[in-house]
């Protein structure tokens, strides 16, 4: 496998949005730019994808939040409630950058008032040498029941934590894992595949985003070759 490694920089889009001379929403969005002496054709396409994705998020999601923040502002003024400033913060973390393979995840935090905001995680993995995104099907032997494999591995990890006194998960975690496991919610590390769940799916808010590292193995996932 080619041993290429990519240089990563951060682009940022940030702004304060005003309404009646009051800042009612701020946003900061980081997204990656990948550079290499080789493979720039596919990297330029990936860079354009993330740049476009950031702009679409601003033009759609943030503008919708801005409209909501204006309504919230007027309601608060009329009812003499404290004014709440909305906030959006998006950042990424590259978890694998080796042998022409990239993997990363994005955490998108939105605060609309109240006790706390909410975070949504998304992720991507790329095989730059083959010019394609990586799915879990690319990592397993043919005809493997991938969903069943990860359900069993994750339930076993949680069961072990619970037996050791952990109370981080809902009592019916087995059914919830089966219900909410998504084979697109993964990223690669140097030790294995991490499967994650969104907030509240299998655990309370205080748990954060539950993550489960499943090591590479002959029976399970292995990196593309």
Automatic annotation (TrEMBL):
Residues 138-217 form the DUF3298 domain. Coiled coil: none annotated. It comes from the Bacteria. Residues 21-119 form the Deacetylase PdaC domain. InterPro entries: DUF3298 (IPR021729), PdaC (IPR025303), PdaC/RsiV-like_sf (IPR037126). Gene3D superfamilies: Fervidobacterium nodosum Rt17-B1 like (3.30.565.40), Heat-shock cognate protein, ATPase (3.90.640.20). This is DUF3298 and DUF4163 domain-containing protein.
């Amino acid at each position: 496998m080619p041993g290429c490694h990519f240089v990563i920089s951060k682009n940022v889009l940030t702004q304060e949005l005003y309404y009646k001379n009051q800042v009612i929403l701020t946003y900061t969005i980081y997204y990656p730019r990948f550079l290499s002496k080789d493979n720039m054709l596919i990297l330029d396409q990936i860079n354009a994808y993330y740049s476009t994705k950031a702009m679409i998020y601003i033009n759609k999601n943030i503008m919708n939040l801005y409209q909501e923040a204006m309504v919230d502002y007027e309601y608060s003024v009329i009812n003499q409630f404290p004014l709440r400033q909305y906030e959006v913060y998006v950042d990424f973390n590259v978890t694998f950058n080796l042998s022409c393979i990239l993997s990363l995840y994005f955490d998108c935090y939105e605060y609309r008032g109240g006790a706390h905001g909410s975070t949504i995680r998304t992720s991507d993995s790329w095989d730059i040498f083959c010019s394609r995104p990586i799915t879990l099907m690319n990592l397993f032997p043919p005809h493997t029941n991938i969903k069943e494999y990860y359900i069993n591995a994750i339930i076993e990890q949680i069961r072990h934590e619970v037996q050791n006194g952990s109370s981080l998960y809902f009592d019916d975690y087995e059914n919830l894992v089966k219900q909410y496991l998504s084979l697109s919610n993964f990223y690669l590390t140097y030790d294995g595949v991490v499967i994650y769940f969104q907030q509240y799916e299998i655990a309370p808010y205080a748990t954060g985003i539950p993550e489960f590292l499943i090591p590479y193995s002959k029976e399970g996932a292995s990196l593309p070759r």
